[in-house]
Amino acid sequence: MAKKRKTKIGSGATKNTVASHIDITSILENAQLVALRLRHGQCTLIATPESPPELQQTIAVQAEYDQGKARTATVQATFTLRDEKHLHIEAAFELLYEIGGQEKIALEQMRAFGQIVGVNNAWPYWREFVQSTTTRMGLPPLTMPLMRLGAIKPKSQPGTQKKKSPGGGRATTKKKQK
């Protein structure tokens, strides 16, 4: 009987590795997203802003890979959007992938896969979560930018990865122009 080997992978770069420089082609060719679910959602309205707030976004990514017979990868992408004076929105999405093929996958490859593909697959759900949550809070709908893959900057703590908002750093509210 084959022994299952699970590896937890935090996406903090240990050797200043940038995910976009790691070849994940073999994983992409064999990966199939089989499930995506919201694991955690939270929002707090501290005070209603009079003008659009300056929001800071962070993205933390963790991946776990089972190299056993099932060959599955689980990626958790946690998105946080906050303005200390007005608003805090957070959501964690869990993505389950089946990884076909027989090739061994290095930890760095799985880490990069989570940072690039996992975040990219979860991003539309994060955009919807933010827009519907702000509307339900009685605020103008906040529209997150489209996903633009860029350099990932490591967070100081191991096991997580921090990115700036992929659309240039700010979420926008829909406003009618006069």
Please provide a written account of the structure.
The chain is an alpha+beta fold and 178 residues long. It has one domain (6-167): SecB-like (Bacterial Protein-export protein SecB), CATH 3.10.420. Helices cover 20% and strands 36% of the residues. It has 2 helices and 9 strands. The chain has helices spanning 25-30, 107-136, and strands at 6-10, 31-45, 56-66, 72-83, 87-99, 142-143, 153-154, 161-162, 172-173. The strands form 3 sheets. It has a 5-stranded antiparallel sheet. A two-stranded antiparallel sheet has the order 6-9. Strands 7-8 form a two-stranded antiparallel ribbon. The longest helix is centred in the C-terminal third of the chain and has 30 residues, at 107-136. The protein is elongated, with a radius of gyration of 18 Å.
Outline the fold blueprint.
Blueprint: E1 6-10, H1 25-30, E2 31-45, E3 56-66, E4 72-83, E5 87-99, H2 107-136, E6 142-143, E7 153-154, E8 161-162, E9 172-173
CATH-defined superfamily: SecB-like
Estimated share of beta-strand residues: 35-45%
- The residue-averaged pLDDT reads 78
- In angstroms, what separates the terminal alpha carbons? 70 Å
What is the CATH class?
Alpha Beta
Brief characterization of the structure:
This protein is α+β, with helices and mostly antiparallel strands and 178 residues long. It has helices spanning 25-30, 107-136, and strands at 6-10, 31-45, 56-66, 72-83, 87-99, 142-143, 153-154, 161-162, 172-173.
Fill in the keyword field for this structure.
five-stranded antiparallel sheet, 2 helices, alpha+beta, two-stranded antiparallel sheet, 178 residues, 20% helix, Bacterial Protein-export protein SecB
